[in-house]
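Rotation project, supervised by the postdoc (A.L.). Task for the rotation student: set up a whole-complex structure prediction and record inputs and outputs verbatim in this book. Inputs entered:
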Amino acid sequence: MNPSWEIAKDLPKYLPPLRAKLPGQSSSSTGPHLPPIRLLVHPEPIRVNYQVVRSLIPRLWHLKGSNGENTAGDGDADDAGDAGDAGSRVQKVLTPAPKPKIDFAIHIGMASPRLHYSIERRGHRDGYAMRDVDGELLGDDGRRLREGKDWIWDGMPAEILTDVDMEDVLRRWKMHSPVSSDLPPSPRTDPPD
Amino acid sequence: MQPQPGRDLRISEDAGRYLCDFIYFSSLAHLRKAGVRRNVVFFHVPSENSTSNFTMGRELLLQLVRSMVESELAHRAAPTEAELTR
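Outputs recorded:
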């Protein structure tokens, strides 16, 4: 099974209202009134293959390189998910339906040894040395030399950070999220497939 | 009752230089080239295959969406200096 996909596949079409207040939560957890937030989920797990991912991303965003008026527009937000790590199978992405404007995206992936949940602040351009699930290397060093100015990431810095205010989001996320005592203990763990 | 995966939520600075990092950079680079705000994050979940892990992941994902939208709205209501000069 692929945890990223299991998480994404059954998401509701719209972000549900906050749960009823639980004992011990601060009153601030009710949060401000939000516009309707539509959730778009990529229809299938994304293969853990470098070239599949590379060709998918532009279609996922539907931005067409325009210097968009899009600054996380109004109302609808969407999210995207995806990704696997460490040989995992992948993920999923929340993706565009016909022509929606994507206001936000969330890629989802799993991190093998980790026992916590994290949100990543930065992505890296270089250093991809592991083969993907189809046994292929990324091969960008050679591609960069051959293609020069035409290389897809020509002119991009070695790291790119999200514009999301991570500290603010983390604070809000902790406030809204259940602590383990809010959840029923899980009676069993499914065997790995 | 078995040990549960840690419920703590963190910011990470290293997405792992595999497909997770790769898809994240792909999105970040795409948005940077398009000249738009990079309203994207990567959510890393434990790899445990259990119903409780999936349920928790889904709940945390929904609350992450809510938190991102709230944060964006708060910034629009009270933009920082950097945002005003953008």
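Student's summary: Strands of chain A lie at 45-46, 91-92, 105-111, 117-120, 122-124, 159-161.
Supervisor addendum: The longest strand of chain A covers residues 105-111.
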